[in-house]
Every structure is written in C-alpha cells, then in structure tokens.
Design goal:
It is a single chain. By secondary structure, this protein is α+β, with helices and mostly antiparallel strands. Helix content is 14%, strand content 35%. A 6-stranded antiparallel beta sheet has the order 1-2-3-9-8-5. Strands 4-6-7 form a 3-stranded antiparallel beta sheet. It has 3 helices and 9 strands; from the N terminus they run βββαβββββαβα. The radius of gyration is 13 Å and the shape is globular. It has one domain (14-121): OB fold (Dihydrolipoamide Acetyltransferase, E2P). It has helices at residues 29-35, 89-92, 117-123, and strands at 8-9, 14-19, 22-27, 38-42, 49-50, 55-61, 65-69, 74-79, 101-105.
Length: 126
Amino acid sequence: MNVPDDLRYSPDHEWVRIESNRARVGITEYAQDALGDVVFVQVPSVGAAVTAGSSVGEVESTKSVSEVYAPLTGTVVEVNDELGDAPERLNDDPYGGGWICVIDPADPTELDRLLDADGYRELIGG
C-alpha cells in the first residue's frame, strides 16, 4: 500500500499535502482501495468554511457511499472540478490528479494532530 512519507493523514483516511501554507486534501490509496471503483465525487464549494472532522464531500463507489471529512479547520479555496467528469481519478491517482480540495487552514497547528506516514501505516496495519 502506497503511503507517501511527505504527507500527513487523518484517522478517517484523508491525506494532506502542505503547499504554500495551504492544505491540498484527498483520500488515501487505502481508502480508495476499500471503496472499489469510484463512480461519483461530490466536492465542497469554494468559499465553504469547514471544521476539522466535519463532512466536506462524498465519494460513491460500486460498493458504497462514504463521507470525506475535513482534516483541518479553514476555508475551501479550490476544488478539483475534474472529478465530476472523471471520478475514477481517485482510484487511478489518489495522491495526484485525484485530490479533492484545497483548504486555507485557520490554525496551522492542527496539522500537528494528524498522523505522519509511519503512524498511518500503523493505523492501517502495515
């Protein structure tokens, strides 16, 4: 299972990549593998205020529907609109083209509460 060392992870299987003080967010390879073939992605609205742990979207697969949770509190400043036409990007490239949104964090220290790669590997059992 691919768990990039340069990311932070939530216990709900979202990843965070800090880019110029903003947080790019997606779901992990583990999460997309558990979901199966993704057929629909609901992304949040640009400008939406989000709270860490609250739902910011939804991923529908051939197996189930799952919530996507905000790993940090802040404001959504960008969304991956391409997922509307190509939801399978979550399966094909979860850490690249399959990102979901970018959050401008209200409190950057919240990042310290997220798991590092080793902690996430331990969480998923490997």
